[in-house]
Design goal:
By secondary structure, the protein is mainly alpha-helical. It contains eight helices and six strands, in the order αααββααββαβααβ. Helix 1 runs antiparallel to helix 2 and helix 4 runs antiparallel to helix 5. It is globular and about 50 Å long.
Length: about 220
Amino acid sequence: MFIGHFAPALVAAARPKAAGLGTLFVAAQLVDIGFAALLVPGIEAMRIEPGITAMNPMDLHHMPYTHSLLGSILWAAAFGGLVLAATKRRAAAIGAALVVLSHWFVDLLVHIPDLTLFGAPPKLGLGLWNHPAIAIPFELAFIGAALLYYARRTEAPTGNRRLWTLAALLAFAQGVDWFGPKEAAYSLVIPATMLVAYTLLAATAAWAGANRKLAGART
């Protein structure tokens, strides 16, 4: 799952007193941002194993701090605390924390068993990455429904051009992820690419959501 992770962010952003869309895009991929950062010093680890799944050659064999349920809860609590400190809005903090936590449950659907509860076996994952005919339409429908929900629940004085620019960037990023060239072996190019992609998507989301407000809300 890649852009599907942003669906909870779009839904949360359409709630009253929510954090900004850019902040929620960071929340949606926070544990993957953490994973990319921890790959650099070797605290967490992955390998490239072509054929390990039908859609993804990444063997994500050591992710105890980011992709355990306990780790995700701790990341969610920390990020929620930061949002509360920055906004003074409890609803914004709770929404952001839930978006962070949603990442683990969405990953559970697509990953082969490489997720954990507490950083040690048993390893969990329902493995939709081995079923592209299910995984691809599911991810597109998931993010598409969330985009439409956000578009209908919010409005901007300049219309939806910024939002559809974001949608186009999401579609492009997902297309590259699915059909673009794959690294033959693990290198620091992988976490660097992850961090650049998440930064670009979050920045675009912040721009797309900057002038939007709840539909019908008074200014």
